Amino acid sequence: MGDSDEVKAMPQRAKGFVINLAASPQRFDSAKAELDDVQIDTIRVDAFDGREIDLAQYAPYDDRKARQFMGRSMTQGEVGCYVSHQRAATAFLESGDDIGFVFEDDIALKPEFKTAAAALIEWLRPRDDWHCVNLGATRLKITTPMAEVAGVSILRAHYFPMLAHALIWNRAGAAAFLAAAEPIFCPADNMLRQVLTRSDMGLATGQSLVTAGQFDSDISARSAGNRGQFRRSPLYGLRKQRRLLHEKAMAVAHRLGHR
Q1: In the structure, what pLDDT confidence band is assigned to residue 244 with cuts at 50, 70 and 90?
Q2: For residue 159, which phi and psi values (nearest 5 degrees)?
Q3: Residue-level pLDDT at 3
Q4: Between the CA of residue 45 and those of 75, 91, 158, what are the distances in Å?
């Protein structure tokens, strides 16, 4: 392995909180092997299986608000994924650490992650101008460049990107997410966008450092290919466009403020 490909030791052995269903131990073992390779201590977070609940009787979920905001009801899988991310953020806060990774269990780390992760943590640790970093986004819109760390560009993600399979939280960010997390009325990645677009405290790497989907996801809403069709309101299109325009307007205003 050449010098440019060497894995730098992770400062203070950062923890990786991996969301995993008890019925899928092989997925956890796969994620743990990936993280062991970059000296990240793996902490299993018991995923919430939304398939086991009746949403009509599940108090944290607000179907009326979901239909107003999303233009449709949420699926059981989406609620399960959402609650799993709540559990992961809580587990991170309870650890007492100042920074923590949160991963879904179907991840694969790209070589760029292995060479840049330690330097990224070192760059983030003294800063107080961020709450969450998205490491796995594939589509980035409305951003401002901040720095280059170990060859990876870091962006202020005014319009926080979707996909939540690989995140870095600090304590203030995890607490802010949990404070806004109930009632549940949209998928986890939509709520991340809601919270972090408003605060303008979200960052993203300019390239995806962590891919998802080496297994069929069993906690993520990605497994529900028809989620956008589920119990749609007749006003689905209008409410979706209203939501997107509002979020993008906030993001543009933040970006203009950074010029």
Answers
A1: confident
A2: -105, 90
A3: 43
A4: 21, 7, 29
The first and second tokens of residue 29, run together, are 């073992």
Domains and CATH numbers, the chain: 9-257 (3.90.550)
At residue 250, what are phi and psi to the nearest 5 degrees? -60, -45
Phi, psi of 162 (to 5 degrees): -75, 175
**Nearest alpha-carbon partner for 180 in 86, 72, 47, 49:** 86
Q: Quick check: 68 and 153 in contact, CB under 8 A?
A: no
CB atoms inside a 10 Å sphere around CB 242: 13
Please list, residue by residue across 60-99, b when 16 or more beta carbons sit within 10 angstroms of its beta carbon and e when fewer do.
Answer: ebbbeebbebbbbbbbbbbbbbbbbbbbbbbbbeeeebeb
More confident residue, 163 or 5: 163
- Dihedral class, residue 160 (left if φ above 0, else alpha if ψ from -120 to 50, else beta): beta
Candidates 209, 173, 8; CA nearest to 98 is 173
Tokens read off for 74: 């949420």
List the single range of 165-169, 208-212, 222-226 with lowest mean pLDDT.
Answer: 222-226
User: Which phi-psi region, left, alpha or beta, contains residue 39 (left: φ > 0; alpha: ψ -120 to 50)?
Assistant: left
Q: Rounded to two decimals, what is the model's pTM?
A: 0.90
CA separation for the pair 77, 83 (Å, rounded): 10
How do strand 132-134 and strand 202-205 relate by DSSP bridges? parallel
Using an 8 Å Cβ cutoff, are 166 and 133 in contact? no
How far are the Cα atoms of 41, 119, 259 from residue 138, in angstroms, in the given order? Answer: 26, 22, 25
